[in-house]
Amino acid sequence: MNYHISERAASLAPSLTLAISAKAKQLKAAGQDVIGFGAGEPDFDTPQHIKDAAIKALNDGFTKYTAASGIPELKDAIVEKFQRDNGLDYKPSQIVVSCGGKHSCYNIMMAICNSGDEVIIPAPYWLSYPEMVKLAGGIPVILDTTDVTQFKVTPEQLRDAITDRTRLFILNTPSNPTGSVYTPEEIKALGDVCVEKGVMILSDEIYEQLIYGDAVHKSVASFSAEHQAHTIITHGLAKAWSMTGWRLGFLAAPEPIAKAISALQSHSTSNPTSFAQVGGVEALRGSQDHLKEWLPEFDRRRRYAHERLEAMPGISCVNAEGAFYLFPNISGTGMKSTEFCDKLLEQSQVAAVPGIAFGSDDYIRISYATGMSQIEKGMERMDAFARSLQS
Ligand code: GLU
After folding, report:
1. Are 230 and 347 in a shared domain?
2. CB crowding 161-176: b at 16 or more within 10 Å, else e
3. 167-208 confidence digits (pLDDT tens)
């Protein structure tokens, strides 16, 4: 039988980040000694006090529908988070809680794009942004960057790309896949262009807490009321609280946009899982002490992996300042990213994500959200692999 698949769905390949993490897990479960650098998922467990809050909610019978855009208590906790961490004032009516940061981004594209509208996306980009834009009928406009500029787009590049069809500019700092963190000055300059041109910014800040060294995070919304009025912030609990499987993301937007997104969500997923939301309240309001352990550990892994990568023949790597990714340049090996990653997995049992998935074929993504002994072993194997290519 020839099943009818919509053009929309037929044009999509499954998310490669998810596929590679799943493949590494599957190979490991089958007894193979695979080192997984694919997953954008912390290896730490969700802190116990967060689990306890959700377990209590479940046992108390908090198992029914909630308001589609999230429970008032969680929206209040999110409002407090923006006030506390970013100096930003939002009303609960400007907050929408969704089933993961990915869902928040998807909702934004659906709420903003008409057919033929343009969305400016700096590359390397998180692989789902362009697909979401296309699903919403929009046109992704890609701005290329390289490691020479630490993968940062300039205000001039942005200005030149804006047309009268531009609806949105996506800014993701700290960045997935590169780990780059824009400085406050750089962020302001990009925000200024958007304010001047009347373009909305989707500011994906899900890696906000995961920064190292001297890097600082500044939300583009926080420079002025005008900047805030031009910004939709997306965030989520997956990364800094290690709650990937809980599927809890949120956004803060100007009220008419939040209202449109709430309506969309009420016809698609309805509310995020009721008792997970109670865990979310605890994550935001409870102790943040887990980060005191996690951040130095991520930092240690980052420094180690960076040093090892830099020493590999044919590979160079700018040091990332945030998230838990490194994005080494592999062009010196003479291979493009898919061939490199395929061979690395086949010959050395190390899983990494080809840069082509993020729009940059001369690079690969290494996630160091895995234990130090795995990283040491994986880097050892990768080093031997890179050396074998030279002979
Ligand atoms: N955002 C993570 C990553 O890039 C999780 C997988 C995904 O949703 O893409 O690996």
Report:
1. no
2. bbeeebbbbbbbbbbb
3. 999 999 999 999 999 999 999 999 999 999 999 999 999 999
